[in-house]
Specification:
By secondary structure, this protein is of the alpha+beta class. It contains ten helices and 13 strands. The strands form four sheets. A six-stranded antiparallel beta sheet has the order 8-9-7-6-5-13, with helices on one face. Strands 10-11-12 form a three-stranded antiparallel beta sheet. A two-stranded antiparallel sheet has the order 1-2. Helix 2 crosses helix 10 and helix 3 packs antiparallel against helix 5.
């Protein structure tokens, strides 16, 4: 996400060879012992300058030419800024700056994000944020990932829908099903690359005009810690019941649960059980919580959410193609309606300005 991720960006940090293990997915089974995995990756090739294809133009630049325009978001390990090139205001990136240090096995790492972005972000998939380049800033001890900028993330978008516009049920349903289809297509593409996202939530779903949704933030494509203390609490509420407090495989069906929770949150304007303390929330999830699906959604959309949020992992769809074949997905028109486009424009225009640098 644009809003995920700084751990004291130290100027004294030194460049190191960084390694990560990106998940090897075979039949949805996670390889928990990364020391035995052959899929090691070192980032000795990252430099402080690069040459990229930017909308058909070959552009060469270095880290000192990146000028911050405004802050898009920040979190525990990184900060994301809207950035332009010096003397080239027409060249715009969303630049994620991450601390240059190895957090070790079983931790969230900047290397994982870069590994996955390199694997999928160059392919111009319509529903995955495009990756332009990675650079190293030795002065500040940071890795910089340059990506395409989008308007905003869904966690900022959906509250405006519910507080300002309150669209009719048909329009809200169209919006939710289009969002669902775009994210499922992105997750299916990741699966084809033997990747699981593992942090699906509204913050990691981006939207842009006229109306297109893209998945971002691949920062925990690698190992996910099993303890509550080592997991971002914001993400913990999207973990499926089988993952809460248990050591078990994390597969595509786990991402499906997170997608279902995200869609339910967006459709009703708040996360289920949002006011519950985290331990109470976890207990209810593990003890068979069933969603109270909004009647504002039509039957086909409720069927989709119900299937994604099955408590028994084996009752969720096995493949993303199973989801895409559902009536709610088939009914999504390739081109959005004028009403959908107008809704998106209204909400984006109503968003508060982002923090200037």
């Amino acid at each position: 996400m644009y809003s995920t991720i700084t751990n004291g960006l130290s100027r004294s940090a030194k460049r190191r060879k960084l390694r990560l293990m990106c998940i090897d997915l075979t039949g949805d089974i996670e390889k928990n012992n990364e020391e035995n995995s052959p899929n090691k990756y070192e980032f000795a090739d990252i430099k402080d300058s690069c040459k990229i294809d930017y909308n058909g133009e070959l552009i060469e630049f270095n880290v000192k030419q990146l000028i911050n325009i405004k802050k898009l978001g920040e979190g525990s390990f990184a900060v994301v800024n809207l950035t332009k090139l010096e003397q080239r205001s027409d060249v715009i990136f969303a630049c994620k700056r991450m601390t240059l240090e190895d957090h070790g096995n079983n931790n969230y790492t900047s290397q994982s994000d870069l590994k996955a972005m390199r694997a999928v972000g160059n392919d111009r998939h319509p529903h995955i944020v495009h990756f332009y380049a990675a650079l190293i800033d030795l002065t500040d001890g940071q890795i910089i990932i340059c990506m395409e900028p989008l308007e905003t993330s869904m966690d900022k978008f959906y509250p405006i829908i519910h507080s300002h516009f309150k669209p009719n049920n048909i329009l809200l349903d169209l919006f939710i099903t289009r969002l669902a289809k775009h994210i499922v297509l992105a997750l299916d593409y990741l699966k084809s690359k033997n990747l699981i996202h593992r942090d699906v939530k509204p913050q990691n779903m981006l939207i842009s005009r006229p109306i297109i949704f893209k998945l971002c933030d691949f920062g925990i494509c690698g190992i996910l810690k099993d303890s509550v203390s080592s997991t971002h609490l914001g993400s913990l509420r999207y973990l499926p019941p089988e993952r809460l407090g248990n050591v078990c495989s994390y597969g595509t069906r786990s991402d499906m649960w997170a997608l279902g929770m995200s869609l339910l949150e967006i459709s009703q304007g708040h996360l289920p059980l949002a006011s519950e303390p985290i331990m109470s929330f976890m207990a209810q999830m593990k003890n068979g919580w069933q969603p109270d699906l909004p009647l504002t959604l039509n039957e086909n959309t409720r069927d989709l959410l119900s299937l994604l949020l099955r408590h028994d992992v084996n009752e969720r769809p096995r493949y993303y193609s199973d989801i895409l074949s559902m009536s709610s997905m088939i009914s999504v028109e390739e081109n959005p309606s004028n009403d959908e486009i107008n809704l998106v424009n209204y909400v984006l225009d109503a968003l508060p300005p982002k923090t200037p640098e």
